[in-house]
Design a protein that fits this description.
By secondary structure, this protein is an alpha/beta fold. It contains 12 helices and 13 strands. The strands form 2 sheets. Strands 1, 2, 8, 9, 10, 11, 12 and 13 form an 8-stranded mixed sheet that branches. A hairpin with a 2-residue loop joins strand 3 and strand 4. It is elongated, with a radius of gyration of 33 Å.
Length: 450
């Protein structure tokens, strides 16, 4: 979820930045509308697409493991291990409550707008004309439109010329289906109410809608006369988030845009910058996509496999008979048990809190005992020592090994990691179906110079 929100914000910020810097002042209104709608939807969709389709899981992922948090070791032993999530639970809970409260408010606001529209529809006199449903009522409000409905107040004091201009303006909104744009943004806004770029997109799309409708009116109305009409319109506006109103608060921008010279054909080249920008964004997000795919593979393996069998050959010697006996012993090694092995003192905790406490204790122990090898430091060597071990049914740490396919080639770093794991005291063994079981884990230890 966090990765999605980060990528969503990155796409929207880059797309919006290009629009604000180069495209906003151009009079290619239809292209600008298409650009805003397209990039808004792309920002929502692109983070959901897995671009790393050619990425393959390394062979070592074929064995079931419990993947522990990476410990990063610096020469000074400065504690740069990620903070334990337990300290942030209360904050995360607080933020989620605020988010859900805001989402509820946004949903209520959306439903309130629909209810108000229905009230105007229900109380007004209806008639159809050229595929448009006119809703006329006696309540004072500015003319506005929504979908194929045009709402008109009989108390509007306008001349025939003014009425024709206003109707042409609202018909343009209806015929060009501007309400669908706003409806899309409002639905997304129920969940993205907190995002400043959502407000930026909505505000700019409203401006574009007005520019397009104004351009339609100006085909039959002089610019000066139409500008005077906009300035004279001071009727009460309905407080509705879903509608297109003739009288808006962007009059200054609209008048400036009406009097501005048309954009040159060469300015169309600015829109081509969208392609390399999108490509750069996709490349920037590729690593995050690969990491997310890695996590998914690990999680999928954890869900599919519960244990694997280790086969050992055991040789026993009987001094009385001076005979040797060879036996094949199969041991079940669980990758995920009902109760995972617990490290350190975690009394008073249960469930997820118990596992988090154990993980924090283990990370603390590893970090306090691992040492950056002197020879590796002097040779400026860095790398990841990927290790695995098994906590057996007695809680003892056994089978400490390197995962050679993905570990660093620097011997000193590998030995430092293994030496640290050999110092691990006993765990409280994991349990499955109420019985102690052996559990295998992977511990990544990253050596990094400051």
């Amino acid at each position: 979820m966090n990765t999605y929100l980060i990528e969503l914000s990155l796409y929207w910020l880059a797309f919006w930045g290009l629009y604000a810097l180069l495209l906003r002042q151009e009079k290619f209104f239809r292209l600008n509308r298409l650009y805003l709608l397209g990039t808004f939807v792309l920002g929502l969709v692109l983070p959901l697409i897995k671009w790393s389709t050619l990425w393959a899981a390394p062979e070592w992922l074929g064995m079931p493991v419990v993947w522990l948090q990476t410990v990063t070791v610096a020469p000074e032993n400065a504690n740069i291990v990620s903070a334990a999530p337990a300290a942030n639970w209360s904050w995360m809970s607080f933020f989620w409550r605020v988010y859900l409260l805001g989402t509820l408010f946004a949903a209520i606001r959306f439903l309130f707008g629909l209810t108000k529209l229905f009230q105007y529809y229900r109380t007004g006199r209806k008639r159809w004309e050229d595929g448009i449903c006119w809703i006329e009522n006696e309540q004072a409000h500015a003319p506005f439109s929504w979908l194929h409905f045009l709402f008109w107040s009989n108390q509007a004091n306008t001349t025939e010329a003014e009425r024709a201009a206003i109707v042409a303006h609202e018909k343009a909104h209806i015929q060009q289906k501007h309400s669908w744009d706003i409806l899309l943004l409002e639905v997304v806004g129920i969940f993205c109410w907190w995002h400043p770029l959502w407000y930026a997109y909505r505000h700019e799309l409203e401006n574009i809608h007005e520019y397009l409708a104004d351009a339609t009116v100006l085909q039959a109305t002089p610019t000066r006369e139409y500008g005077k009409l906009l300035l004279r319109q001071c009727l009460q506006q309905p407080d509705l988030p879903l509608v297109q109103t003739f009288h808006t608060s962007q009059l200054k921008k609209r008048i400036i845009m009406m009097t501005k010279s048309p954009s040159s054909t060469l300015a169309l080249g600015k829109y081509l910058l969208f392609l390399p920008l999108t490509l750069m964004l996709l490349m920037a997000c590729e690593d995050a996509e690969a990491q997310e795919e890695m996590d998914k593979v690990v999680n999928d393996l954890s869900d599919e496999a519960k244990f694997f069998e280790r086969v050992d050959t055991v040789i026993t010697f009987d001094p009385a008979t001076l005979t040797e006996d060879v036996a094949i012993v199969k041991t079940k090694i669980y990758e995920k048990a009902d109760q995972m092995p617990i490290f350190g003192n975690c009394e008073g905790y249960t469930g997820q809190e118990l596992e988090d406490c154990s993980g924090k204790n283990l990370l603390t122990f590893i970090y306090e005992n691992v040492k950056y090898p002197k020879e590796a430091f002097e040779a400026k060597q860095e790398g990841l020592a990927l290790t695995k071990f098994v906590v057996d049914t007695q809680g003892r740490v056994t089978d400490i090994q390197l995962i050679t396919e993905k570990t660093t080639e620097h011997t000193a770093l590998n030995e430092a990691a293994l030496a640290t794991l050999r110092q691990l005291p006993d765990f409280t063994p994991g349990q499955h179906n109420g019985k102690p079981v052996s559990v295998q884990m992977v511990m990544p230890i990253k050596f990094k110079l400051n």
